[in-house]
Each structure stands twice: as C-alpha cells, then as structure tokens.
Design brief:
Elements (H helix, E strand, L loop, with lengths): L2 E2 L3 E4 L2 E3 L2 E3 L3 E3 L2 E3 L3 E3 L2 E3 L5 E3 L7 H11 L7 E3 L5 H4 L2 H5 L6 E4 L1 H11 L6 E3 L5 E3 L4 E6 L9 E5 L4 E3 L23 H12 L3 H11 L6 E2 L11 H11 L10 E7 L4 H14 L4 E6 L5 H9 L3 E6 L10 H9 L7 E8 L5 H11 L3 E2 L2 H8 L8 E4 L3 H20 L3
Helix pairs in contact: 8-13, 10-11
Length: 415
C-alpha cells in the first residue's frame, strides 16, 4: 500500500513533499520489490521553488498535497532535473494550478517536456552548465550531467544549504518511510550499490565527469530523487560512486584493430578520429588501410585484439576494396567474441556499414550498434554503425564520440 507524507523539513525553508510508494513497482523491466520514493523538494523562499515532481500515477494527489501547503499561484519556479515520468509526471497537473511558474531545465529537457506533455504557452528558463538562479534567500546552481541516465539530465546545488539535488544519481530504490539515511531501520547499502550497477554503471564515463563537476562543491547533504536523503556522511556515498566507477587495472594493455577501405579519404579521417579517441584510453591501436596492407597480417592482428572496428566507403550500395574478402575470411574462422562495430562515409547511400555488420555477426563478434546500445545502456543516440555523409567538423566530432564509447565498451567488456 502506498503512503503519503505531507511535508518534512529538509533544510531551512526547504521541505520534502514527495510520495512513498511501497508497492512492488514495475521499473525499467524490473520489479522494485522494496518499492521506492518519488522525492520532490519545495523551497519556501521569496520566489518559491519546487525541485522535481513525482510519478505520473500520483499527479492528482501531489497537486492536492501541494495546494494544502501553499497557494500554487505563488510558485515561481519548477526545476525539472530529468523528464522521465517518475520525475516530471505530475508536471502537467501542477501547471494547471501553478499558473505563474517558470519551468527551469536544460534545452533538451524543454524540448522533451513540450513534446511529451504538450506544454504550450509556458515560460521556460533554459540553463547551461554552471548557471545560477537567485530564488530570494537561496541560490541554486545547475550542472548538466548528460546520460545519467538520459541525455537531458541535470543536477541542482543549493549554495547556502550546501545541499546537492542530484536527480537519479545517488538514489536507492526503497520505500524509505524514514526518509533520512541516519534513521534507516535496515541496511540500505546493498540496495544503493545495486541501483548504481543497474542504472548508473552502464554510463561510467559520465559518472566520472559528474564527479569532477561536484568535486569543488561543499556538500553537507545529498537529496536524490529516490530513496534515502543522505544527510549522514554524504562524502561516503560520493566516495562509493568514485570507487564503483573507477576501472581496476590488471596491468594488461588492451588492443583494438581498426581496418578500412576508402575511396576519397573520408573513411580514413573517421578511422583517425576513432583511433585517437581509443588511444586516449591507454590502449594500443593497430590501424590498417587495406589498400596497402597484407590481409594475413590484418587477420592475425584481429585475432590478438580486444576490439575491432571495420570501415568502408559505399560504392553502388556495396563495400569497396578488400574489406569483403577480409570479412569472409573472418566469418569462416573461429573468432573470439570481442566487441566489434562498423563505420564508413558515403555520398548518396551508405549501405556498406550494414553489410559489414552482417559479416561481423556471422563471425561471432559482439556487434556494437544502435540496438545493442539502446537495449543495454539506454543510449538514444546513433553512434554505431557510424555512417557519415561526406565529412565536416560535426562528423569528425561524432566519430570522436563513437571512439570514446567504443573504447569504454572494450575496457568494460566481459564475454
């Protein structure tokens, strides 16, 4: 049975106004056996401000609860750190009563909210990384933390309170009736770690970037979107994220082979960007242009590699050079199941990468593509197969991003 709490003081003039949901909750193809909380925070300053709402299922109850606490016409700002329905779901119902409230979020967050909830004729305050907002008695500072765990996510820091509102980060899925971790009646640390592994772990590089951004902040309390508010020893949980997102080094240097055929040199430029990004991870990169490479040498390099990138320009809807000959040999051989992906440039069509992927699958590689990244990591971005129409600076930056992502996959891959 779900239970509600009207409000609980979190900091000076700041109150928890969320929902405790102790059902078995379906979530991301899981069942939350211990339930969860939807943490929303109300700051009763000169310009009253709400940080996040609650799950869409409880929109009406949430608005009724908020109305019992204040005149909603006086609500000045609604900060949306993350647009998923368990955070922003009550926003449409709230906006119908909070007629003067300005929505504070990222540029992408605003686009998504407008599309998801058909929000029209409402004012948005678009924040950028590091921006601040004076709400009359408190200062809020915002940091963009993309892919923790979706692209639009940001976090909010209350400067005077030294409190971090990190959205899904540092959360725990438990129906935490006590709200604060120092009042917890059971050991919640395993659940905290499980949440990290399932939700944040697949986005490890972005966890590292988030930790860099908050390193200079004085944090006395962490008030996440789910589970316990961490007012006892918050640095312990920052340290846990640091430990869990740090790769252990076994002393073994990993290797990636990049092989390609190119018509005009554009696919070579992609290969160079991929190679540079992967090398920055401390890995060895063997790069081959098949125009002047020995196929046996290339095949031997692949067999001793921990990752493989295969590229080709597209000509008449097909691959070029000796790429197909190499791939046929690999498909007929017994290959280790290592991460592999396709890339290539094109002019009027780009079928070569699709043909490459088919061969890689036949050869038994773990193909990294949009289906894999969306299904395993929730990445809503098309980095692999890396198909680029001609070449410009934007395309090269995309190739660099793809290289970083592939390097991460190789470093963390377990067969």
């Amino acid at each position: 049975m779900r239970s509600e709490l009207n409000s609980v003081k979190v900091a000076e003039n700041t109150y928890w106004v969320g929902i405790v949901d102790d059902r078995k909750v379906p979530f991301h193809r899981l069942i939350l056996e211990k339930g969860t909380t939807y943490n929303s925070y109300l700051m009763m300053t000169e310009k009253p401000t709400l940080i996040d709402t609650v799950d869409i299922a409880f929109g009406r109850e949430f608005v009724e609860q908020m109305s019992s606490l204040m005149d909603l016409d006086e609500l000045a700002y609604i900060v949306i750190n993350h647009v998923e329905p368990d955070h922003a779901g009550a926003l449409p119902a709230l906006l119908s009563k909070a007629t003067n409230a300005v929505i504070v979020t990222t540029s992408l967050g605003a686009e998504l909210l407008k599309d998801m909830f058909r929000i029209k004729n409402r004012e948005f305050l678009i924040i950028k990384d590091g921006d601040s907002l004076d709400i009359g008695g408190k200062t809020l500072q915002f940091f963009e933390t993309p892919y923790l765990h979706t692209a639009e996510t940001m976090i909010t820091y209350a400067v005077e309170d030294k409190t971090l509102y990190p959205c899904d980060q540092f959360s725990t899925h438990m129906a935490a009736h006590e709200l604060f971790n120092d009042l917890a009646q059971e050991d919640y640390l395993p659940d905290f770690e499980t949440y990290y592994k399932l939700i944040m772990g697949p986005h490890r590089p972005y966890v590292r970037k988030m930790l860099e951004k908050i390193a200079g902040l004085e944090i006395n309390m962490i008030a996440p979107s789910h589970g316990y508010i961490l007012r006892e020893d918050p640095q312990r949980f920052i340290s846990l994220y640091d430990e869990m997102s740090t790769l252990s080094t076994s002393g073994e240097t990993k290797k990636v082979t990049i092989v390609y055929s190119t018509m005009t040199g554009n696919t070579r430029k992609l290969a160079q960007q991929l190679a540079e990004a992967i090398a920055d991870y401390g890995m060895v990169v063997d790069e081959y242009n098949l125009r002047d490479a020995d196929l046996k040498e290339v095949a031997d390099s692949i067999r001793s590699s921990d990752g493989l990138l295969v590229g080709s320009s597209t000509r008449y809807a097909d691959m070029v050079g000796d790429i197909e000959k190499l791939l046929q040999e690999l498909a007929e051989s017994e290959m280790r199941r290592i991460p592999a992906a396709a890339f290539g440039s094109y002019g009027w069509s780009g079928e070569a990468t699709l043909h490459i992927e088919n061969y890689l699958e036949q050869a038994g590689f773990q193909v990294i593509n949009e289906r894999h990244l969306l299904g395993n990591h929730g990445y809503d971005m098309s980095l692999f197969p890396l198909r680029v129409k001609f070449i410009d600076e934007k395309a090269l930056e995309r190739a660099r991003q793809a290289g970083e992502l592939f390097g991460e996959k190789v470093l963390t891959y377990t067969a």
